[in-house]
Amino acid sequence: MAMTLDGSASVTINSGAILGITSGTAVASTSGTSIDFTGIPSWVKRITVMFSGVSTSGSSQPIVQIGSGSVQTTGYLSGSGTVAGANQTGFASSTVGFVVIISNASATISGHMTITLMGSNIYVSSHAVKHLVTNISSGGGDVTLSGTLDRIRITTTNGTDTFDAGSINILYE
To answer: Fewest CB within a 10 Å sphere: which of 41, 129, 137, 171?
Structure first.
């Protein structure tokens, strides 16, 4: 962290970047095939996507996509496994986004995904969510963007299932 002190008691940290955690505005995930958060500042190094009771109309897995200028839809290496009780019951992988496996269309997701800048426009993700009453999913992935991240999209692997419950928000720092 860069810090400058001058004789006037002024302090500049991170060349003017705002310190702390900034919250986006929660979006109801009750319609549409995707939810976008844009205008993410260039100084952001970590983003948390929060899910509360999110559900979709079909069986396609939810994914989070990121981008620089536009949403990137290729080049991801991600995986997600689900556990019910003490048993792994499923696994999903994706090259089109950071995937979050769910058991079925009636499952609602609550939890979070963290996306962090490693350097050189390489971003890594990890997630932990609850779906159904006794199931949890966790996983991670990585992708390289052509520039600095400035947007996030939450959608599904087929891109056509619609959101039908819950809300989604982001935090960035």
So the answer is: 41
Report yes or no: 95 and 157 within 8 Å, Cβ to Cβ.
Answer: no
Contact by Cβ (8 Å): 63, 99: yes
How far is C-alpha 91 from the geometric centre of its chain's CA atoms? 18
* Cα separation, 87 vs 103, whole angstroms: 13
> Is residue 116 within 8 Å of residue 46, measured between CB atoms?
yes
- The pair of structure tokens assigned to 171 is 């935090």
Separation CA 139–CA 50 (nearest Å): 15
Q: Can you tell me the distance from the alpha carbon of 164 to that of 159, in angstroms, rounded to the nearest whole number? A: 14
- CB-side neighbour CA atoms (13 Å) of 132: 15
Per-residue pLDDT for 125 more than 80?
A: yes
pLDDT of residue 6: 52
Range name among 12-26, 106-120, 133-147 with the lowest pLDDT average:
12-26
Q: Which contacts of 93-96 are long-range, i.e. CB under 8 A and separated by 24 or more positions?
A: 94/61, 94/63, 94/141, 94/157, 96/63, 96/65, 96/157
How do residues 40-98 score in pLDDT, each as one tens digit? 999 999 999 999 999 999 888 999 999 999 999 999 999 999 998 778 788 999 999 99
